[in-house]
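quick one before i forget lol
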Amino acid sequence: MPEKEKLPEPSEEFKLSVRHAASISVTCELCNRYHFGNDQNALEESLGKKEYAKLLRDSKENPDKYVYHNEDMISWGNIDGKQAVIDCSCNELSKYESFIWIEKHIIADYLEARAKKEVRSAKLNKDLADRVKKSVK
């Protein structure tokens, strides 16, 4: 079975666009790696001492699946309904970035058409609200 080709890292601009939270531990749902930071007290409080000890053992036995970070918090965001760890080594975020960039003309056309439709709908709702307001005076 051929080895899976390594994806390029997503750009800083894309990572900043996706990033919206940070946690002491989080699963990257794009690859199912579990990431955790270095705040032992917070992790023990969150997971419990036994689970934290198990996590440390797991991370030594399988560091690619249980990823230790030498920082307190792990940055993440949501894309396509999934949690994505921003600096996960899977680099699956780059697939989304590539799709968006390659299809930018389609996306721009869609956003323009959708925005125009939303403006028309908002105007109709405002006109209706104005008519209701006049009728109750």
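fyi The beta strands are 21-23, 25-28, 33-36, 66-68, 74-79, 82-85.
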